[in-house]
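FAQ: What does the model actually see?

It sees only this:
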Amino acid sequence: MRKMATLAIAASMVFTLAACGSSNGNTQQNGSASSDASSGKVRTLKFAALETAYGKAPWQEVAAAFEKKVPGVKVDMTIEKNIEDVIGPSMKSGEFPDVIHLAVGQPKGLTETFVKDNNMADLTDVLSMKVPGEEAAVSEKIIPGFTDTTITNPHNDGKTYLMPMFYSPTGLFYNAGLFEQKGWEVPTTWDEMWALGDKAKAEGIALFAYPTTGYFDSFFYALLNEVGGPEFFGKAMSYSEGIWQSPEATQAFDIIAKLASYTEKTVPANGNKDNFTKNQQLILDNKALFMPNGTWVVNEMANAPRADGFKWGFTSLPAVANGGDRYSYTFFEQIWVPAKAKNQDLAKQFIAYLYSDEAAAIFAKAGAVQPIKGMSEKLEGDNKLFYSIYDNGAKAAMGAFTSTAPVEGVNISDTVFGSIDSLVTGAKKQQDWVSAITKASDALRAAQE
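And it is asked to produce this:
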């Protein structure tokens, strides 16, 4: 289950590395490759990646295409499901990959460790580089907002250290077939949501379900943007003093607490790694209307039974008021360069190539979609529905709680999201939840870098 890994953010590997190296311009990089080709010298780019559901094949195909595009270059690939264990020993002895595709949120926290230790190369200049084989600059290809997050720019210094790769919109999934049968409209505001909840309850259908409490991260982040906008969200993610007692935060807490009262009561008992699909099945069986999830849910439930006429529907969170902004949170993977990588100029050229139409088409065939302008128009079926959400008025929410030095006994994700089950069962009151969040936030504020 993808989310169980996403929520386990623990920096358990510590490396003491010295940042070094800088990039030459794009022209010099291309010239270097051409020079190597004419002299018969081959430059080797060491690439390491976590093997995910997309598999190794698309990376291998993209590497082969890059080698043709930039003569005199050989991509040496290491793609493993336990990539942190594979590359860890060699990095301890001073041998680093030139490029690493490994997102934040993995159990061993390797990427977070490199961030905290300031051991990533500055990739800001990649944004101004031309995509190899194309006239457009990288920044012109990427959907706005994806390189202005607390994940890609973790040090709040105006520089980009992690580049965005494959992304997955999240939002509320529902049975569009049921809505058609009932003649119901998908709510556009929370007031409409509560009204629909009452109507559905009269027919024995719950308004809401969730796979596990972990899925409330994307929900909560989108909601914070709706109640207060990106600036408010940024303050919340950096543990700003008093933020959780603000009117905006109170509005968000009130919505979640009310939503808990509209949640199918069997959900907490099944909200774990063994039974989470039972909660997802509630949507397919018309026992609940909406659930927060990501695009991966379609494959997870591909072979599950479903009600007659079922078809996936997908929407952003309802607005807090008529005409208000609606948000859909986006999970995205990242690619980066260690500060002690030997071939940083070539590494940056390779990363720039990943945003080419050629590379994007290869990845898309494997179901890996990049945040590149116009990609949603090239997709088909359910993916076209999911990835066009930002073309239909929703705004993209990105970022997460900022990393800090470890604080014993404090896990902000557990405190914020892990308490939802208790809100649903009534074991915890809203004010107790807010007090715990405030206490954890205060502790982490003092531990920020």
